Amino acid sequence: MAQVRNKQVILKDYVSGFPKESDMEIVESTITLKLPEASNEVLLKNLYLSCDPYMRILMAKPEGTPNPRTYTPGSPLVGYGVSKVLESGHTDYKEGDLVWGFTKWEEYSLVSSAQILFKIEHTDFPLSYYTGILGMPGVTAYAGLFEVGSPKKGENVFVSAASGAVGQLVGQFAKLTGCYVVGSAGTKEKVDLLKNKFGFDGGFNYKEEPDLDAALKRHFPEGIDIYFENVGGKTLDAVLLNMRVHGRIPVCGMISQYNLAQQEGVQNLAHLIYKRIRMQGFMFSDFYHLYPKFLEFVLPHIREEKIVYVEDIAEGLENGPAAVVGLFSGRNVGKQVLVVARE
Amino acid sequence: MAQVRNKQVILKDYVSGFPKESDMEIVESTITLKLPEASNEVLLKNLYLSCDPYMRILMAKPEGTPNPRTYTPGSPLVGYGVSKVLESGHTDYKEGDLVWGFTKWEEYSLVSSAQILFKIEHTDFPLSYYTGILGMPGVTAYAGLFEVGSPKKGENVFVSAASGAVGQLVGQFAKLTGCYVVGSAGTKEKVDLLKNKFGFDGGFNYKEEPDLDAALKRHFPEGIDIYFENVGGKTLDAVLLNMRVHGRIPVCGMISQYNLAQQEGVQNLAHLIYKRIRMQGFMFSDFYHLYPKFLEFVLPHIREEKIVYVEDIAEGLENGPAAVVGLFSGRNVGKQVLVVARE
Q1: Which of A112, A161, A249, B252 gets the highest tally of CB atoms within 10 A of its CB?
Q2: Distance between CA B163 and CA B145 in Å, rounded?
Q3: pLDDT tens digits, residue range A55-101?
Q4: Cβ atoms of residues A247 and A275 within 8 Å
Q5: Where in chain A is the domain with CATH 3.40.50.720?
Q6: The domain A3-132+310-339 is classified under which CATH number: 3.90.180.10, 3.50.50.60, 3.40.50.2300, 3.40.190.10?
Q7: CB atoms closer than 10 angstroms to residue A150
Q8: Do the Cβ atoms of B108 and B46 come closer than 8 Å?
């Protein structure tokens, strides 16, 4: 039985504060590329791994009720990925299938079939898209905007972290719905992308706005109907001052808060009452059932180039730590993907 | 034409910090008890006035977009009240009708018919109930719990300011739905009311709990499905740590924050994501249309004594300032009503 090298990205210890590359290490273990006797698991060759902000939450030492998904120091990170089935002990999968779902940050993984979420049926797109526009971020943008946000034509939509994996799609989906869309991002390059590549009506660099309330009033003189929340903290506080009556705030993430020992306090929540706002947290895992409907919606738009997708590709597991860490300084432009192997 | 005395409660100046009795004054003006020629207004004799926490918001100097309902220094307060029609220039009302809606804090008021919300049809209850269980607080509790909170039998419900005008009803409505209900209040007397009068399953005095998170964990070891939010601030922060997956937070008020120049920051909002919580502000004014349905629901329960209502009655306009101010120190036990005249 062939024993092969299995390079891994290991969490060294629980992370506090901003994650550093040195919080992780690359180790070379070995793996036997053969399922154990009578196993109903699936042996995967990992191709593309998804770098996502929520991973920071799973790197923290658990307090109170432990999250079963929290990473274990000494073990590889776990996340969404695109993989090829090498051998399957489960009837749903067979050798050669391409799948996406939860896998480990390593070259080869032995996983329970329950960790695989979907078989990849449409291969006329870059496979990496299944970590992004055709994967978790795609459904997240779709469900968050349409199921939670309920946009109507002509409404005003604000998206934070707007050039990111989810934000760029939220903005484009909202434009397709006939909304006025403005996004915020952290560099001029990203703001240019919003306007010139993704078709947003406007955008601003939040790092260059001393007064976020004023920036929002400039872009939304009549207020915001939907705020797609990716960042939390000061941005949320400024948005609350600018929401319209019966506005909606789908809460997808709060990346500005994940590295803080003490979260920034949000002071303007009473505006939820004054404006009768619905603020609603959600997660992709509640919307798995929408995946077929989502593909029906999004595939034609991609084929007709009515929706574009920008990825930031890092090559090789050894660049994984830098890719994850970069999410929190905003180094990535577009969806951060890590290539383990291309086939 | 009879000119009569018209005692009024006037706002002296915009209020900052906790309101004081001296922020208001009692003045004696006069009024002619006759509608002006060709007027389509309605002349009211005010009977019962409602003292409500939201009034504090209207006492503040407007910042940014002015709220058209903000009180005008030198003019009487405006609020919900029960009144008798003395003369009507509008075909919907006639002399002798009892009505409830917006009126001024004075003995007699000339109002636009649009300020009257409902004619009182059921008079086999104390008329003061139309400032409470049969008025704005009743519909607020009903709509907030059922329309926004969507309770299911067996769910865990937490109510803050639980012995107040709205809270006591939310708890009783939730018990009728088959929920487990715990409330918080600010004195032992009020907590006793929750358990012994309103039939809550439990209650605690938040002023005697050094650790609100621990208090909630004691009462809700399995977490909270619905938090009916009346207070904001630290209570909300502790609740967020104890919400269950897919929990709901109808946001009715944030009384702990209305007197603060700087709002307390709420730090645990990321739990909206982790638990996929829906937090939704609402106001009675969005639910006027539910009033007939609400009466059908609540009237039989009152008649059969399955729901009780506790009021705190202050006598006479001259006691109005103390009654309003008392809301913010929790002096009132149950719904604070001000009697101007009994008929």
Answers
A1: B252
A2: 16
A3: 999 999 988 766 888 999 999 999 999 999 999 999 999 999 999 99
A4: yes
A5: 136-285
A6: 3.90.180.10
A7: 13
A8: yes
Which phi-psi region, left, alpha or beta, contains residue A77 (left: φ > 0; alpha: ψ -120 to 50)? Answer: beta
Please state, in angstroms and rounded to a whole number, the distance separating the CA atoms of residues B343 and B340: 9
What 8-state DSSP symbol labels residue A309?
-
User: Which homologous superfamily does the CATH classification assign to the domain defined by A136-285?
Assistant: NAD(P)-binding Rossmann-like Domain (3.40.50.720)
pTM for this one?
A: 0.95
Average pLDDT, chain A: 96
Q: Touching check for B244 and chain A: CB below 8 Å?
A: no
For chain B, residues classed under CATH 3.90.180.10 are 3-132+310-339
The complex's ipTM? 0.94
The tokens for B290 are 């539910």
CA distance A284 to chain B (A): 10
> Looking at chain A from residue 112 to 141, which residues have their Cβ under 8 Å from any Cβ of chain B?
none
Please tell me which residue of chain B has the smallest CA distance to A268.
B263
Cβ of B279 and A279 within 8 Å? yes
- Residue B171 is predicted with a pLDDT of 98
- From residue A203, alpha-carbon distances to A192, A193, A199, A213, B337 in Å are 8, 9, 10, 14, 51
pLDDT tens for B69-111 read: 899 999 999 999 999 999 999 999 999 999 999 999 999 999 9
The structure tokens 């001393």 sit at A210
Average pLDDT over residues A230-257: 97
The shortest C-alpha distance from A262 to chain B (Å) reads 8
Torsion angles phi and psi, residue A108, rounded to 5:
-130, 140
User: Closest partner residue to B281 among A232, A264, A273, by Cβ?
Assistant: A273
Q: Please report, as a single letter, which amino acid is at residue B334.
A: G
The Cα–Cα gap between A116 and A96 comes to 14
